[in-house]
Amino acid sequence: MPASHLLRPVGTRVRTAAGSMSDEAPISSPVSTVEKPAAYRVLARKYRPKDFSDLMVGQEPMVRTLTNAFETGRIAQAYMLTGVRGVGKTTTARILARALNYKTAEIDKPTIDLRIPGEHCQAIMDGRHVDVIEMDAASHTGIDDIREIIEQVRYRPVSARYKVYIIDEVHMLSTQAFNGLLKTLEEPPEHVKFIFATTEIRKVPITVLSRCQRFDLRRISASDLVGLFSTILNKEAVRFEPEALAMVARAAEGSARDGLSLLDQAIAHGGGSVEMETVRSMLGLADRARIVDLFEHIVKGDAAAALGEFAAQYEAGANPTVVLTDLADFTHLVTRMKYVPEAANDQSFSEIERRRGAEFAGSVAVTTLSRIWQMLLKGIPEAESSARPAGAAEMVLIRLAHAAHLPSPEEAARRLLELSGGEAGDGRPAPARTSGNTQAQAGQPVQARSVEAAPVQRPSANGATMLRAVPDVAAQPITVGRIEDRPAQAPAAKAEPKVPVNSVGDIADLCAKNRDIKLKTLVRGFLRLVHIEPGRLDVNLSDDAPKTLLNELAVKLKEWTGIHWVVSYSREPGEPTLVEAEQRAQEQRVNDARQDPDVAAILARFPGARITDVRIRAAEEEVEDLALAAAESADGDIVPGDDIE
Q1: Which one of 107, 185, 227, 634 counts the least CB within 10 Å of its CB?
Q2: For residues 259-274, average pLDDT
Q3: 399, 379 in Cβ contact below 8 A?
Q4: What does the pLDDT read at residue 438?
Q5: Domain for residue 50, yes or no?
Q6: pLDDT digits (tens, 9 = 90+) for 85-140
Q7: Is residue 558 packed enough to be buried (19+ CB in 10 Å), middle (13-18) or exposed (0-12)?
Q8: Is the domain of 232 the same as that of 336?
Q9: How far is CA 543 from the centre of its chain?
Q10: CA angle, 234 as apex, 228 and 236 as ends, to 5°?
Q11: Can you tell me whether residue 438 is helix, strand or coil?
């Protein structure tokens, strides 16, 4: 066969030797009939919510609000969606855009009933609709991007009802971009809607928030996530263990997307099934039942058993930091069960955790649980930042076991007082110990006995235990003589100040004497006296009084008078301030002057005249006489106390 024949297309017509045309039989070629497998879609994309009914998992308040708004036609021009990662902000924005542009043969209006796909639904959910513009503010942060939006909003949508702008991570916009968007956001054209999404709502200017309807998308509870995961795995025909799904839900921390990504990884890790052991090894988690055992060793104070249990979990592949974190979670669960017994119904925890947690809640004191919690909060960062996390975690466990049975500060103080024969914990003197068969008669001394010092343990500041010898009250020698009536001790007299202080005026004079003009001004202008006695001052303050006035006054009074002062704020109105009293006195003098016939005649004689000040001449002369007397006393002419005839 000629080589040229091999190059002819299969099934072509050829000329024979006789010159006639004939059809050449097609030469069979090895055409592959195996179809390429469809591209795999991860669970987070495959089961992404498509309508509001799917968003009912954890976001019921938002769905209810939007339902009522669409039914009544109260559709806002802008929406702000905020929440942590993976709770459905972008998905909700697309569903909202789909609801705004919903159109079928029967329905042509915005609605939340999206059970039947509309003309624009698929394109909007795929992110390729011409009238639904999605912009990532993380990469379009400048004013030029916002200026482009402002120029485009003037044009009507191409095919949809509304032109919808979805701006994700809106908090990344610059200040100039936010300012440029304000006017359009407040009064956009009727055919334009804005939907913003952000994880940092505090970074969004209040001027933007005030122009939007805000929806806070909540974290999805662990029980809702477990239900979502089980529904998806049933559709995927994947075997699973409920305990494994609970582990994934806890690791997701309220994020559906994070949970589905972990679930995808768990299916691959388990070879087509989701089992507890495979999930635990994948996440580096410890066995939750063994965490409970570790908690039990700690509350018993058994450090050796706690270290042995931790070593076994560490050898099994558990992360030391995760062990401490799980221990803190279980401590929190036990504390909650102590006050909220319904917490035992939380399905995100295993049966062992719920059952044994209830047992610990009834037996472990709150002070112990609180101490364990606080020490774990400080120990977890230590293990995370340590070069040897396992060693750091072991040191934390040793501290926990050692501190489990330490008494609280109140208990330690009470025990010391009881053993030392001092006051009891309630502030009353400790009762004297008497023997029932050794009673002393009046005038008959009792034989002295040797004194034995009883060692008393007392926790030191660094956690070590110190011993202090305390005399045993029962072993002390007691000599009983004649019983005599002793006069009751008179109560200690109150300390008197070096300088008498009986009024706010005295305090102001004391400030002037010590040349503290600032404090004198504050006392005169803001202090309203309620009650005063040596060592105690109750006052009310006028508006705008400095917050530090009372503390400063207490310090100065102690310095100037030599006794301790308690200066407290009272809600009673109190007397007027010195400034207010002087103003009222001046007003009264002016009114009295107006009533004087001579003054009234002068005011009538000169229209427009007014009284600006009133001075009492007798008082001024008295002040001048006192000043003159003081000067003469200084010269030696007249000294107070001299007899003048």
Answers
A1: 634
A2: 89
A3: yes
A4: 38
A5: yes
A6: 888 888 899 999 999 999 888 888 888 888 888 888 888 888 889 999 999 888 88
A7: middle
A8: no
A9: 32
A10: 105
A11: coil
Q: How far apart are CA 274 and CA 46, in angstroms?
A: 18
Strands 536-541 and 527-533: antiparallel
Residue 168 makes CB contacts below 8 A (sequence gap 6+) with 89, 90, 93, 134, 135, 136, 137, 138, 197
Torsion 503-505-511-513 (CA) sign: negative
Q: Classify each residue of 208-246 as buried b or exposed e, where b means 16 or more C-beta atoms within 10 Å of its C-beta.
A: bbebbbebebebbbbebbbbbbeebbeeeebebbebbbb
The verdict on 209 and 244 lying in the same domain is: no
Mean per-residue pLDDT of the chain: 78
The whole-angstrom separation of Cα 133 and Cα 135 is 7
- Say yes or no: 135 and 237 in one domain: no
Task: Please tell me what DSSP assigns to residue 42.
Answer: -
Number of Cα atoms under 13 Å in the Cβ half of residue 30: 0
What single letter denotes the amino acid at residue 552?
A: E
Looking up residue 176, the CATH number of its domain turns out to be 3.40.50.300
Of residues 341 and 469, the one with the higher pLDDT is 341
Looking at the fold, whether 235 and 294 belong to one and the same domain comes out as no
Write down the pLDDT at residue 276: 84
> What number is the average pLDDT over the span 155-183?
92
